[in-house]
Amino acid sequence: MPESDPIQARLIELESKLAWAEDLLDTLNMTVFRQQREIERLQKQVLALDGQVRSLVAIGQPASVRDEIPPHY
């Protein structure tokens, strides 16, 4: 049975690498999931801010401080 020892060792090594790869894949999937949630949250925030800017422009308010006329003019 001396031939089975190298085969057994190789099999254990492959199983170990597979377990490590599966763990890494799970970690990466969770990272992508969290990033996607954050992207969606930020997109909603940008849309809300865009709506606020548009409503200010519609009622004649300056969209930013740079658009305001200084008081000395």
Structure description:
With 73 residues, this protein is an all-alpha fold. The chain has one domain. It contains 1 helix and no strands. The longest helix is centred in the middle third of the chain and has 55 residues. The chain is rod-shaped. The mean pLDDT is 87.
Proportion in β-strands: under 5%
- Write down the overall mean pLDDT: 87
Number of domains: 1
Number of alpha- plus pi-helical segments: 1
List the helices and strands and how they pair.
Layout: H1 4-58
Structure keywords:
single chain; 73 residues; mainly alpha
Summarize, please.
The protein has 73 residues and is an all-alpha fold.
